[in-house]
Amino acid sequence: MNPSTTSRVIFQRPRGLTDAPFSYCPGCTHGIVHRLVAESLDELGLTDTTIGVVPVGCSVTAYNFFNCDMAQAAHGRAPAVATGIKRVHPHATVFSYQGDGDLAAIGTAETVHAAARGERITVIFINNAIYGMTGGQMAPTSLPEQITQTSPYGRDPQTAGYPLRVTEMLSTLDGVALAQRVSVDTPRNIRAAKRAIKRAFEYQRDDRGYTLTEVLSTCPTNWGLNPTEAIAWLQENLAPYYPPGVYRDIVADGFQNVAEAAAAKRERLGETK
Ligand SMILES: Cc1ncc(C[n+]2csc(CCOP(=O)(O)OP(=O)(O)O)c2C)c(N)n1
Ligand code: SF4
Ligand SMILES: [Mg+2]
CB within 8 A of 206, min separation 6: which ones? Predict the structure, then answer.
């Protein structure tokens, strides 16, 4: 074959995604995160043995987009459903994919207890600071002064309280192997988010414990911004309030799994017999 006519594929849709076109608005970052999850599973050879659990929210139809077995949970119940699936199929890779309304409002209890139990699941948490699917109501992660459909004068902490920093909160729990926050606002940050998501799946493969990866995301439609303005709003407002970073990593702390880390902590606190 003439080498000048030989072509080489350098970029393609990951096998972990189906051919279905995404249902998301222009400029919405749900699609970017889907791709990062699918690429991670492909690269780790886990796509064919993965079961995903999708939420209620704009990603409710993500079962059409991921090319693995998928289940759809009632609003907020994804960690409970994922727990059941993982316990019945301990050798499967199980992930939940949840928005902030789903994970941090109606599903807070399931989230906290799945993390405290150290369930071997990978939770991908899309924080766009709003209820996207239902038209832009205030979420637990909406910022102080943020204007939403249900806070038309801006979120007032006096009446609506302060936003939840879920990653920081869960990072205090012994069942958590990895708690990290990333952002998908620039190519560099997207690459960092990919590494973080892949690491989270590696931790499940290696049976280390529960992992949470929060992704700062955009909702241009309900923020009332165009896609470029939405990225700028994320950078100027969301990222300072929710700083990206690794908040708990038991491997970096020198432990193999959450049981080892918890035992060492008990010993430090003098609670062992
Ligand atoms: C039990 C129940 N309560 C309320 C709703 C309505 N509802 C659907 S999606 C949603 C919020 C979605 O927001 P989020 O989880 O942040 O996802 P996003 O659309 O922003 O990605 C709500 C309240 C529902 N479907 N079921
Ligand atoms: S409403 Fe917001 S979160 Fe939902 S698809 Fe559109 S931009 Fe994305
Ligand atoms: Mg949301």
Answer: 256, 257
Report if residue 58 sits inside a domain.
Answer: yes
Nearest one of 36, 2, 44, 45 to 17, comparing CA atoms: 36
Is pLDDT of 111 > 60? Answer: yes
Site to probe by mutation for ligand 1, drawn from 133, 164, 215 as the one with most ligand atoms within 8 Å of Cβ, is: 133
State the burial class of residue 227 (Cβ atoms within 10 Å of its Cβ: 0-12, 13-18, 19+): middle
Can you give the CATH number for the domain in which 246 is found? 3.40.50.970
pLDDT digits (tens, 9 = 90+) for 58-82: 999 999 999 999 999 999 999 999 9
- For residue 8, being part of any structural domain is answered with no
Distance, CA of 266 to CA of 263 (rounded, Å): 5
Kindly provide the b/e burial profile for residues 146-164, where b requires at least 16 CB atoms within 10 angstroms of the residue's own CB. Answer: bbbeebeeebeeeebeebb
- Residue 219 within a domain: yes
Residue 16 lies in a domain: no
Whose CA is closest to atom 7 on ligand 2? Answer: 219
Ligand 2 centroid, distance to 249 Cα (angstroms) = 31
Confidence category of residue 272, pLDDT binned at 50, 70, 90: low
